[in-house]
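Practice record 12: protein with magnesium ion.
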Amino acid sequence: MKFHAKLAAPSHKKIRLKDFDPAETYGYEKGHEKDDRDEALMAKTTARLDELQYMLYAEGKRSVLLVLQGMDTSGKDGTIRHVMSGASPQSCKVTSFKQPTSRELAHDFLWRIHKAVPEKGNIGIFNRSHYEDVLVVRVHKLVPKSVWSERYDEINRFDKYLTENGTTILKFFLHISKDEQKRRIEERIANPNKHWKLSEADLKEREFWDDYTEAYEDAIHNCNTKHAPWYIIPADHKWFRNLAVSRILVETLEKMDPKYPTPELDIARMKRLLK
Ligand code: AMP
Ligand code: MG
């Protein structure tokens, strides 16, 4: 299956997240007889990613940016850990966007984002992103509607500008159900090693689930452009979420088809000179 074709958010029509099953696995299974096959696919994908990342780095002309968004506990950190487990730290950079600092707030909302865009040859990952400025900011009315409503176009122009300058952008919405979020919070409460990940803010944000859902539907719909597509990743099953994001990244890199640069040096002469 081509994951990018299957999981690309539909363009043109308004998106209703309730029409997308967060537990979907498209026939892939884990813990059954097919377990081995799908484990092997993940291992193969990780190995292929390592190879392609190396070629992208060697080529040094283009970059890839993964944007990860999703409700609390949707697995943004886990996705980064698993998908990039085989990646070279030399050409991979993760940036997590938290509440803006006062210095960041003193600039336009894209200022801190632009500074973190991956350089040529690199893969960059955004754990949260400029999309927070039409999500949390909208839900909590941190700026008036007249301001956030303009941001969809501003983001589209920014995303387009980046792609025209050699950055391929992939945007992932990690789609979990409200029940699954409850299970994950319960799991964190029960496991002392996970307490550091808990905050009461998560419980507060959970009360705004419907508002966030609406804000995500609009962000995905308004900013699902050809140059910077959104993918809706069923994320109730962590293993499927990891597989899907990895596959889409590999499929994209294969389409980009990075090439080792042709050497400018004279190999025959090098051989002669080597004593
Ligand atoms: P975490 O991802 O759990 O570390 O939390 C980061 C927090 O920063 C989340 O609650 C986000 O909603 C918040 N955040 C990220 N970007 C922004 C932004 N542009 N404005 C306000 N809050 C933000
Ligand atoms: Mg959090």
